[in-house]
């Protein structure tokens, strides 16, 4: 990591790979010897055509995306997909099943209820979202039009380890915003996958959508043009001026992931980083992990000291030490270290070293808090 940069544990917009940022510095000035920068290119020109096509192909190569799936680069983030999914797939007389494991899936439920009936097939609310529901706790409705889940919960630090089994023939829809391409993914297990780019794939303002062909035309044709998946698929995400910089950067991130060993390499790298931090938390006399062991996220590690005052002191001192973004979400409190793909291993080691020093210096306060 460059000595000019601090360690960024922010939940999103989040850390990007340094090689990608270095390449972007050049391409913002002059890309592909075109004489202009990537942010100035026409989205209808040949140079951007190549950028977009390369980004899609790199995405397909990483995940082995079959030909009967469309790859879309849209806008509005995952939050717009909360609406687009039911808008396109949930008729008034049908029911969609949602697996509720945190704030973002709750928000998705709220939007879906504007369009049709929603059944919560499982919920982690009773445990304050500190664990993923077990398979025997899931109760699907008799004939759901689709099943929706959030694969990783940024705020609470939980993660589905595998896709849950869904009723035969029912499409599984997944919000993968905070763990997309952090590990291998079987795209064929899903009807639709969406991911806001700003955590693991690129900058804010862009969203990746992977949708099976048979679902593209399912939406009512009287929806606003921009909100129909058929429009975006037919126009290759170019119906209107897209987030050109976002698509470019996502393509560069996909290429970086491939160079780092692909999705298998990312999975190994992420497991090793998370182990360093969780191992320390499990042995610490001051800090405690907040999530059940079998539900722990490899992307977002949530922890506390047991004292709000000590938590605040930790965050303040960590920021002064060059460890940024560790304050927990306002709805959860405590601390959170987001250690996405681009977070380097040395950042996690630096965090653990700081936590060790902080614990040693605050043992009397910690004992009093307990």
Précis, in short:
By secondary structure, this protein is an alpha/beta fold. The chain has helices at residues 18-29, 46-63, 77-89, 103-112, 213-216, 229-234, 244-259, 262-283, 308-320, 345-361, 363-369; strands at residues 7-8, 69-74, 95-100, 117-123, 147-150, 152-153, 158-159, 172-175, 192-196, 207-212, 288-289, 300-304, 323-324, 335-338.
Give an account of the 3D structure.
With 370 residues, the protein is of the alpha/beta class. The chain contains 11 helices and 14 strands. It has helices at 18-29, 46-63, 77-89, 103-112, 213-216, 229-234, 244-259, 262-283, 308-320, 345-361, 363-369, and strands at residues 7-8, 69-74, 95-100, 117-123, 147-150, 152-153, 158-159, 172-175, 192-196, 207-212, 288-289, 300-304, 323-324, 335-338. Strand 6 (152-153) and strand 7 form a beta hairpin.
């Amino acid at each position: 990591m460059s000595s000019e940069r601090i360690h960024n544990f922010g939940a999103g917009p989040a850390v990007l790979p340094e090689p990608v940022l270095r390449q972007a510095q050049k391409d913002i000035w002059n890309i592909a010897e075109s004489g202009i920068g990537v942010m100035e290119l026409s989205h209808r020109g040949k140079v951007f055509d190549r950028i977009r096509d390369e980004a899609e192909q790199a995405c397909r190569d990483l995940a082995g995306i079959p030909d009967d799936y469309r790859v879309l680069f849209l806008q509005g983030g995952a939050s717009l997909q909360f609406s687009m999914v039911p808008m396109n797939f949930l008729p008034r007389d049908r029911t969609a099943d949602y697996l509720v494991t945190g704030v973002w899936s709750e928000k998705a439920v709220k939007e879906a209820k504007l369009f049709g009936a929603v059944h919560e097939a499982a919920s982690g609310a009773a445990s304050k979202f500190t664990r993923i529901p077990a398979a025997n706790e899931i109760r699907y409705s008799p004939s759901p039009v689709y099943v929706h889940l959030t694969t990783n919960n940024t705020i609470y630090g939980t993660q589905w380890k595998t896709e849950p089994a869904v009723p035969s023939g029912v499409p599984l829809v997944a919000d993968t915003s905070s763990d997309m391409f952090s590990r291998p993914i079987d795209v064929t297990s899903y009807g639709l996958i969406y991911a806001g780019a700003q955590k693991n794939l690129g900058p804010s303002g862009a969203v990746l959508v992977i949708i099976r062909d048979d679902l593209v035309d399912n939406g009512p044709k009287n929806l606003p043009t921009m909100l129909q998946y058929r429009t975006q698929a037919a126009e290759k995400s170019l119906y209107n001026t897209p987030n050109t910089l976002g698509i470019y950067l996502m393509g560069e991130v996909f290429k970086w992931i491939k160079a780092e060993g692909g999705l298998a390499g990312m999975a190994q790298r992420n497991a090793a980083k998370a182990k360093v931090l969780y191992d320390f938390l499990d042995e610490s006399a001051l800090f405690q992990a907040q999530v059940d062991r079998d539900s722990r996220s490899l992307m977002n590690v949530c922890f506390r000291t047991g004292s709000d005052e000590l938590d605040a002191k930790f965050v303040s001192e960590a920021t002064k030490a060059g460890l940024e973004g560790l304050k927990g979400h306002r709805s959860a409190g405590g601390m959170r270290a987001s250690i996405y793909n681009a977070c380097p291993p040395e950042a996690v080691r630096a965090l653990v070293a700081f936590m060790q020093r902080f614990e040693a210096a605050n043992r009397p306060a910690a004992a009093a808090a307990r």
